[in-house]
Fold this protein.
Amino acid sequence: MPAMPRQAPQGTQAVQRALALLRSFTPEAPEHRLSELAAAHGLHPSTAHRLLGVLEAEGLIGRSPESQAYRWLPGAPGTGVARSSPRRNGLRPLEPLRTPFHRRTSALCESDARRDWSGYTCVESYEPTPEREYWAVRNAAALIDVSPLFKYELVGPDAERLLDRVMTRDFSKCRTGRVLYTSWCNEEGHLLQDGNVQCLSRERFLVSAAEPCLRWFQDCGWGMDVDVRDVSEGIGVLALQGPRARAIADAATTGIDFGAMRYFDLADGEIGSGAGGGPVRVTRTGYTGDLGYEFWVAAEHAEALWDALVDAGRDHGLLPAGLLALDMARTEAGLVLIGVDYVSAVDAEIEVLKVTPAEAGLGFTVKLDKRADFVGRRALELERDRGPAWAMVGLEVDWFELERLWSEIDLRPQVVGQPASREPTPVFAPGGWQVGQCTTRFFSPLLKKYIGLATVRVEAADPGTELDVEVAVGYGRRRARARVVERPFFNPPRKTAVGPAPGVNG
Amino acid sequence: MTVEPAAADGIGSGTPSRGGGRFDAIVVGAGHNGLVAAAYLARAGLDVVVLESSPEIGGATRSEEAFPGFRFSVFSYLVSLLRPEVIHELDLVRHGLFLVPTASTLNPLPGGDCLFREADPQRTYRHVARHSRRDAEALFEYKLEMRRMGHLMYWLQRAAPDELAAVIGDRVAESAEHLDVDVSAEVADIARHFLDLPAARLRTFVQMLTMSSADFLGQWFESDLLKAALSSSSIIGSMLSPRTPGSAYVLLHHYMGEVDGAYREWGFQKGGTGAVAATIAKAARSHGAEIRTDSPVARVLVRDGRAAGVALANGDELSAGVVMSSAAPQISLGRLLDPEDVPGAAGAGLALRAARWQSGGCAGKVNLAISGLPRFECMPEPGPHLSGGITIAPGLDYIDRAYDEAKYGGFSERPFIDMIIPSVLDPDMAPPGKHVLSCFVQYAPYELAAGDWDDGKREAFGDAVVRTLAEYAPGIEDQILHRQVLVPPDIEAIAGIPGGNIFHGELRLSQLFLLRPDPAAAAFRTPLPGYYLCGSSTQFGGGISGGPARLAALRVLDDLRGVESAAVGGVETP
Ligand SMILES: Cc1cc2nc3c(=O)[nH]c(=O)nc-3n(C[C@H](O)[C@H](O)[C@H](O)COP(=O)(O)OP(=O)(O)OC[C@H]3O[C@@H](n4cnc5c(N)ncnc54)[C@H](O)[C@@H]3O)c2cc1C
């Protein structure tokens, strides 16, 4: 990713910038978020905020009451063609956002099954059923557009200090060229989010997260010499996941030694086989628990990247995969999802929903031995002494249990082919009280078991503990006996193996 | 859980013969059934050895790198009948079971039309409606009825036929609650299920035992194409036309399959079906079973009127109180037994009946290594249809004519072909960009009326297959890099199945249930105490199911418990 120039506004430059900002507003692109404008114009958000404030006060642009986004005012001088639209009366409905891969993904989306993800229209499954896409993840390779992730660039001499202050992991130990998976908490030690941090240099990091957190990072960095910028819209992200990912990645890019790349390494290279294909960053990360990489690319090179990967994948069984397949794979990998398996403390309407990292199964990301003080440290130290109240566990319902339940309505178990369910259902002690809730579950066609992720009282969390979980049988809801098992459910050696591309024999 | 990939090939997965030895149980044949039986016995604590005559395990489930970089599923190619009990009780997923579903079926027609059926019933409705709206609608009703039939068979196959017959007989005789026979609650339950069937369903069941599939399907459908497509499953492995009475049962046999409860689903095992055998072998070994290849068994040894072990062809003797054979009856009840050894009068009749067992081959297998994906005239571009089944069966007359040629001792010049492209389902089957094509072909008799398979006819058969394919996928003849043609004598030679019948004997009423493979040996026990059958020629019938072997092994364990043999001891219920 090319770094954005950092300069202070002054004199004529400020006028130029204000006009440039103004020109961003056209009837075709009437609305913009602050972060987006700041990123697009290479401005610090506070600078952009100031300039936009002036434009607004002068009646040159407006402000959307719901989203607080800035918007085009018909007839204002300097902006796009003035055309009054009586119907809209100056206010336009929000259009869904498009990821930089949208033209490619939508051309392939035969099923028309799409879903909103942070305002973006994303493909749920390209084909009418997600099965082939799911199997591609486990058996060949799948290409998944995960661009809607929020991306924040932290730049400046204090970038590492800020991360060490915000994050539960130890950034003094994070080497350049590595990615660190981490949690971040509020003062009470309650989990706000989990995400990856790319360590690009000691002064430059890229955080990716499922929910917005610009304000949180900026506020935590108050007084530090670091810029926190929202670069979400400018960067497209593609996940290439599956046993053939290495062979495909290798063929689709130049300048990266994929055989040497370890799990959670990052590397910069170029798209295509020759030079000049446009820069791309690759991280050996993913959300499937399989061998895989994520490609980070400036929006203008996104389609070139897509084409290169699809081309290289043609002979390896590569399929584009939607969010349903991704959800199935991540469940097998035992990976928790914010907003589904746990609720961010900022979204928790009731106290009991707030969890610590340990309670969300992310205890391994909390480094209480790190030198830096970090947000939530004291609370988490108390928790260490007291022990967490909840635990994130894997649940496994075996086949015979399903057979038994379904034979009561005279059917074979009707479980395969169902996407992962996100409706929380209660988990009980055998025949007894509720001890927690199961937040994600589905029948894994690979493991041939009905698996789920559940938050339960720690007393009920030991592997081997038997619990009852509610499952849908026909129209009824039945309790099925489940066993607490270790996560991940599926963990192939290739996920972390290094060396030449596996599975290519010719 | 870490899933360890099983070696895809059977090669090297057994140890060659090494003399004799003492065991609790000996299993003859390391096909998938022999391996399942061994796994169950070993799991119960018995000391088990499997003896396989060929240098490799797998029998009819084997994979082979026949051409560098290209892996063939030599014979069997899809899995659906594999019993969930076997999968779960033997923990096969942990040992490498990896089934990728093939969710669609394409029936290309000459001239570029086709019939396509997909996993989604509404989409299938639309495809079928192009040929007949009435049929498209009837398909829902038909599927529901077949699902019920499949479910019924699924349960019936869960018990040994003698037990089931006993309970059903008892219930019919007394129509009372109390039973005279001593059977498990499960068997009683299954019998109840059967007896409580509504009359209409019982009628369908009887129809399926006796009718031709064409007539059976004619009760629902008018489209010749759809009837031909659906009747494919009624001829697989059988020297029958869809118009031959009895073919509806073969249809039913294939309808009791499922993958994870998904009715009629077929899956491709990663690495080919050889990996199924390798997976089961791993499970068996994890319980301590020993598997020896290159160990042809010549004879079952008998002492004091009981099976006491086996003698190998090389003269080595192994002793055990239990001997199980997964080989076809001509071998198990014929060659391996001396009629003198069988107590009572059963002996002579047994051998004679085994010799009359109907198990002529009818199918060949043509495996192709190809340079790129085939382009079917009806759907030339790559797409989901290439990861499903593709069947050349453009009409009932077409199949009937193909059958006629074989009836008169020739092979079908324009054969029925059931095809998959394994490398689309599992990219490891071929080098990147290249593919393998698995063609199951009918009809090919064991013996030709004119000429000899070895005298050019085998390749002529291969040519007929390629010629036929080219009618639907023009240009395929130029894509072929390598070709493997196997006809019934090859199945006999490689998999050790006399006659080369894929099911170890035709699935017809005269050879089913209490008659399979012999009235005196229909429930896994033979007239020789201590000697059992566990292969495809028993109760369940053929196919990759593990069903007969599981029931046979449970029966052995039951018997051992009954005998309370101190020598065995510590037998646990699986
Ligand atoms: C071409 C073809 C295609 C098929 N396609 C399918 C399919 O797609 N799906 C499906 O479900 N089924 C299919 N089948 C059927 C299925 O493969 C068989 O029914 C099944 O594999 C038989 O298993 P088994 O263990 O009972 O016997 P086998 O696999 O025949 O194994 C018996 C073993 O016993 C050994 N043996 C015999 N005699 C002796 C002896 N004296 N001493 C030692 N060892 C001996 C043999 O060498 C052999 O290894 C197909 C079969 C064929 C031939």
The interface with chain B takes residues 127-129, 131-132, 135, 139-140, 244, 247, 314-317, 398-400, 402-403, 406, 410-417, 443, 445-448, 485, 489-493, 503-506 of chain A (CB under 8 Å). Residues 11-23 of chain A form the longest helix (13 residues). Residues B 28-34, 51-54, 59-61, 75-78, 81, 296-297, 326-327, 331, 363, 365, 440, 491, 495-497, 502-504, 535-536, 542-544 surround flavin-adenine dinucleotide (CB under 6 Å).
